[in-house]
Write a structure and sequence with these properties.
The complex is a heterodimer of chains A (320) and B (346). Chain A is of the alpha/beta class. Chain A contains twelve helices and seven strands. The longest helix of chain A is centred in the first third of the chain and has 26 residues. Classes of the chains: A alpha/beta (320), B alpha/beta (346). The complex binds thiamine diphosphate and magnesium ion.
């Protein structure tokens, strides 16, 4: 991997981590309404995959969607503004954290329905195939979603039609409180790919270079008409399922142990310095730049006007 | 004199009646004609569904389209209702104009999340960033001995979801014009046909024919009672109106055609004229869309009414199999005549 890519991947991951920290503070200050789900610990997946995507490639995301959104090059100010319920937010305060979309960058939305985005990405891939473009679609979803019917139906449809779609399963070991160990009778979710007749790949989702390499192959194959891939990234979420989760289903030891053992940012810092792709000083400078950018984004968002009143029918219908 | 072509804009269709070239068509044929013309007109229109290719669809609505448009545009899917509807939603969000066929409306439960939580709300949730030009074609209704899992009338489910449009044509001409309009519409449309209508015949404009969504149609004028109805019950109500005429009662039959958007004005102006309103539908009465219409009439035209609005609808039961039982649970012509007479007498 070249220096520029390595540092960019690090920057994206650091931006996601900082965004989650900053939104957690805002939540604690009662400025964010509803609920938010932190992507901390899983940054390498969104960063490594989206590094290969163009603005005209599509993604579908999840309730834990901030990371995908950032990696797909969303504007941080508009993301914060959405969380704060402002007119200047991506969804003008209509959607909130679980529905952030940025169609100008191909982000077809976070999704409050577990598994809801999987067929939608499949449909986006159908559009690419139908129109004869080399666009691809990526569906991000969790281990929990891999047990939804949409997973089965969509992977089969994509396989029989050879659609340019990559199914990225983020196995963070839990679906809310339910451990993947209990929700699957298999240890490796990627073996399911064989049942659909598509390649299945399993990578260490802590290692952004590994995700980057696996995604590169899958996306290149899809662009060339080689069809879909199931890419399973083993991961761990550092925070609770949602902000304020008492985490009764996990032990303190587990959480603290995994949090340090499984940190994609620390991991990347390690090999970037080791392989001479960047110095500690350069990485620290990125951290500071990201922090500054984040503060500017929060300030911009907080200065924005509140969400405008709903307008019927135009908020809901294109015509009526 | 050579017949004039049908004007192409919806407004023009409603304008002074142009002379239209028409042909007798079955309802299924008219739908097929709309699909064919829209697919010829716009390469972004594709059809997805089960058994829609060589077989031509369970009710032959897509017959012949595979040969004309090929398997890429007539996309036969596995038995995967949420997969096929969700794929259509994703395709609609990204630039195609898919028509997804659900063989029976009774199967819509398998796809409901993609219709209700995704397609219907994407525009709203995303603050206007998305358009979902999706048509979900399906059919419902009893009358063929298909029993409880293949005979329901579930339109009320979908009218209850903000973001969907709900269309239910009664005649071949409306079927063609409304389907074409639904395909050109930028919002998700539930297009609900009736299995007993496929083999009904009527004059249908050839060539381009658009019936705008949200416009009711007075299928018969009258002065004594307004029958508000849709889908197959329009035909039954017209038969009833003919019988009522023999009894000296002039019934006006208003075909709402699209339940959402609803042409309230046409319903209210008819009711203000006749001062009586009977809503007729096949779906079960409890929670049916007739309750919505009756409530609108009561709220907005109360002072113009000579009697409370009345509903005649299906019995609150799953559809039974045996034919006499099946006939007994949904309104028949005689029931409509009786209800209208009581309303006028009361
Ligand atoms: C259809 C559906 N069922 C249940 C829920 C409630 N819920 C929200 S997130 C979640 C767990 C999802 O687990 P997973 O797919 O592994 O994603 P993760 O939260 O771990 O990122 C559940 C059960 C939901 N939102 N949608
Ligand atoms: Mg999970």
């Amino acid at each position: 991997m070249d220096k520029q890519t390595a540092l960019h991947l690090y920057r994206v991951m650091r931006t996601i981590r900082r965004f989650e920290q900053r939104s957690t503070t805002l939540f604690g200050e009662n400025k964010i309404w509803g609920t938010i789900h932190s992507y901390a610990g899983e940054e390498a997946i969104a960063a490594g995959v989206c590094e290969h995507l163009r603005d005209d490639d599509w993604i579908t995301s999840t309730h834990r969607g901030h990371g995908h959104c950032i990696a797909k090059r969303a504007e941080l100010g508009k993301m914060f503004a959405e969380l704060l319920g402002r007119e200047t937010g991506y969804c003008r305060g209509r959607g909130g954290s679980m529905h952030i979309a940025d169609t100008s960058k191909g982000n077809l939305g976070a999704n409050g329905i577990v598994g809801g985005g999987i067929p939608i990405a499949t449909g986006a891939a159908l559009t690419a195939k139908q129109l004869g473009t080399d666009q691809v679609a990526v569906s991000f979803f969790g281990d929990g979603a891999a047990n939804q019917g949409t997973f089965h139906e969509s992977l089969n449809i994509a396989a029989i039609w050879k659609l340019p779609v990559i199914y990225v399963c983020e196995n963070n070991q839990y679906a809310e409180s339910f451990p993947a160990k209990k929700a699957f009778a298999i240890e490796d979710i990627s073996v399911r790919a064989a049942g659909y007749g598509m390649p299945g790949v399993r990578v260490d989702g802590r290692d952004v270079a590994a995700v980057y390499a696996a995604a590169s192959e899958a996306i290149a194959r899809a662009r060339k008409g080689g069809g879909p891939t199931l890419l399973v990234c083993e991961s761990y979420r550092h925070e609770g399922h949602y902000y304020g989760d008492p985490r009764k289903y996990q032990t303190k030891e587990e959480i603290e142990g995994w949090k340090t053992a499984f940190d994609p940012l620390l991991d990347a810092r390690g090999w970037i310095v080791r392989d001479g792709l960047g110095t500690e000083a350069e990485l620290d400078a990125i951290d500071r730049a990201v922090d500054d950018e984040m503060e500017r984004a929060v300030a911009w968002a907080e200065a924005g006007p509140p969400a405008s009143p709903l307008k019927f029918p135009e908020d809901i219908y294109a015509s009526y | 004199m050579p017949p004039t072509r049908v004007p192409s804009s919806p407004a023009a269709v409603l304008g002074p009646a142009a002379v239209q070239e028409t042909r007798e068509m079955f309802y299924a044929e008219a739908l097929n004609d709309a699909l064919r013309l829209e697919m010829q007109r716009d390469p972004r229109v594709i059809v997805l569904g089960e058994d829609i290719a060589e077989h031509g669809g369970a009710f032959q609505v897509t017959a012949g389209l595979l040969a004309e448009f090929g398997p890429d545009r007539i996309r036969q899917t596995p038995i995967s209702e949420i997969g096929l509807v969700g794929t259509a939603v994703g395709a609609a969000l990204t630039g195609l104009r898919p028509v997804a066929e659900l063989m029976y409306i009774d199967f819509s439960g398998l796809a409901i999340d993609q219709i209700v939580n995704q397609a219907a709300q994407n525009r709203f949730m995303f603050g206007g960033q998305a358009r979902v030009p999706l048509v979900v074609r399906t059919q419902g209704g009893s009358g063929r001995g298909n029993a409880a899992q293949h005979s329901k009338s579930l339109e009320a489910w979908f009218t209850h979801v903000a973001g969907l449009k709900v269309v239910m044509p009664s005649t071949p001409a409306d079927a063609k014009g409304l389907l074409a309009a639904a395909i050109r519409d930028d919002d998700p449309v539930m297009f609900i046909e009736h299995k007993l209508l496929y083999r009904t015949k009527g004059a249908v404009p050839t060539g381009e024919h658009l019936v705008p969504l949200g416009r009711a149609d007075v299928k018969r004028e009258g002065t004594d009672v307004t029958i508000v109805t849709w889908s197959r019950d329009v035909l039954l109500s017209l038969e009833a109106a003919a019988k009522l005429a023999d009894l000296g009662i002039a019934a006006e039959v208003v075909d709402v055609r699209s339940l959402v958007p609803l042409d309230k004005e046409k319903i209210l102006s008819s009711v203000r004229k006749t001062r009586r309103c009977l809503v007729v539908h096949e779906a079960i009465k409890r929670g049916g869309y007739g309750a919505e219409i009756a409530a609108i009439v009561a709220e907005e035209a109360f002072d113009d009414l000579d009697a409370p609005p009345r509903r005649l609808a299906g019995v609150d039961t799953p559809i039974p199999y045996a034919q006499p039982l099946e006939l007994g649970v949904v309104p028949q012509v005689a029931d409509i005549v009786k209800a209208a007479r009581e309303l006028v007498a009361g």
